[in-house]
Amino acid sequence: MKNNYIKLSLFFLLLLFSCSEEGIDEIQFGTVSGRVVEAGTFEPIPNVKVFSSPNSSIVFTDANGDFSMIDVPVGDYSYQAKKDGYITKFEAATITNAANTELVFELELSTSDNKPPSSPVLVAPADNAVNQSIQVNLSWTATDPEDDTLVFQVILKNDANTNEVIYPDISETSFQLSNLVYGVKYFWQVTASDGINDVVYSSIKSFTTADFPATRFLYVKKIGQNNVIFTSDDSGNEIQLTDSATNSWRPRKNNQSNKIAFIRSNGAQNHVYIMNPDGTNIFKVTNSVPIAGFNSDYVTFSWNANGSQIIYPNFDRLYRINTNGSGLLQLYQTPTNKLISECDWSADGTKIALKTNNLNGYAAEIYVINSSGLLLTQVITPVAGAVGGLNFSVSGQKLLFTRDISGFENANYRQLDTRIFQHVFSTGTTSELNTQKPPGTVDLDARYSPNEAEVIFVNTSNDFLSTRYIQKYLIGTLDTRVTLFSGSTMPDWE
User: Fold this and answer.
1) 428-453 pLDDT, tens digit each
2) Cys-Cys crosslink for 400: which of 7, 391, 394, 416, Cβ 3.0 to 4.6 Å?
3) Roughly how many angstroms between the first and final C-alpha of the chain, as a whole number?
4) Which CATH class is domain 217-493?
């Protein structure tokens, strides 16, 4: 009996040993490798703790953000990447026998302990500064406890209207304001953001721009494909009045209304507009009947003395309109169906000078009518060559104009020898002003100076391709031709 018991015990021990050996042989392993990077930038993050649940092993990323684990038993795991300052990231993984499983962790910065930036401190211009330029450089200071990158925005308001302008995404602690309005008080504020915390605001400060300077000259310059209106004082300090994105030309100032009228393209038509002397408050005067003629570069209009009305041509008809856009009235129609290109209204309102021409701008004549459309006098009967630049003297007793004495005519309306003439109504005589025009040039767009002792005009080469100069000349004297502005046309001097 005893021997049987011993034999049975040995049998069970052998069976148990055999089963244990078989279980050990069945355990399988794989490997895990990967990288930990910063979300968004994908920069590697070193010294990140990587471990799993169920627990296999714990490793740390190297300088390249890489890690690896060997002899990981097959199975399903949840791996974690953890480092102070970052939000812990979890990745699920299934480890298979003799295979490598790759993991990539994109860690986001933790903002739980991040502190907001300081409120910006406005430095310049000083609070309540006055006489500032219409280009103002704003500056401020701001710091962040963690040296986070800050993004600023400038908030700008003014006391002239309710507009609020925001300039976003500023990376520096300064910003250049451009194209401000003269004589306006501005209020400005700066915000700062670190992209993590709430935006912080500076206090509000103010500055006032200088009053609009005293300018008397108006003219046009070409910027790209557009005509742009400028004004200047006697010292040549120039200010742009109209936007270079619009086509605006032929400025005329009326001192009594303190407004500037001009022509502007509006779709396929041209219309008369008015604006303040500083270029603000632009208003479209004409609507149903646009200003039109044989060539828009040579068509003109005219104010009445007090600035309440404007006369302008529309092909063979002359219209009058109030400057608020009301009261449109046809004053005159040419009896020969010629086109009206230019007009001027005497200060006393009794005379209107007209220049008419055919479809090509030629066969020009100048005559004067009254406000009822009755012919008063003929200044020029139809002549060959270009004629233009009508302008009454203040008294209405003289009329200034230009004429190409060469009589040249072509499809491009080129002029070869255009000179300035003056007609005196009391004597009925017309004579050339001896401006000593250089040979090979033309004088265009002549107008009286405010005191009528001088004339202002455009001089350029008769190739019509060279630079154009605005010049002035003292009537009745020699060697007094002076250049005022270069690259400019269509002058007005009030």
Assistant:
1) 999 999 999 999 999 999 999 999 99
2) 391
3) 142
4) mainly beta
